[in-house]
Design a protein that fits this description.
The protein is mostly helical. It contains 4 helices and no strands. Helix content is 79%, strand content 0%. InterPro entries: MFS_trans_sf, Nodulin-like.
């Protein structure tokens, strides 16, 4: 009896491992696509753009934690449903609003004023 339980348990772990491998690889691909698109759109502010994108990744992790605790009430099955259906639907809906823009031909001095304002406001 315990042998069958161990076999069942190890097969579930293998399924979870496979799902994590697929999820990790897709997350890396998505992050790379976003980073490359933004580097092409903002060639003179690459450091600032990559820093903002990394900051959004940290904020997204905090938002997922709040959603898990407050909205999903610590339900693992609801979290899996959100991750498998909610995120792809959100990505597919948002891809129609995000378009590449023409790269700037030169660096404008007015761009730095916006970044100084955001640094002072912190």
């Amino acid at each position: 009896m315990s042998y069958n339980l161990y076999r069942l348990h190890s097969s579930l772990l293998l399924q979870i491992w496979a799902a994590l491998v697929v999820a990790t690889n897709s997350n890396t691909w998505f992050g790379t696509a976003v980073l490359v698109t933004n580097m092409r759109n903002f060639p003179f502010s690459r450091g600032t753009v990559s820093g903002i994108l990394k900051g959004y990744a940290g904020i997204a992790a905090a938002v997922y934690t709040v959603i898990y605790i407050l909205v999903l009430k610590d339900s693992d099955s609801k979290l899996l449903l959100l991750l498998t259906l909610g995120i792809p639907i959100l990505c597919l809906a948002m891809m129609y609003f995000i378009r590449p823009c023409a790269p700037a031909s030169g660096e404008e001095s007015s761009d730095h004023v916006h970044f100084i304002f955001s640094q002072v406001s912190k």
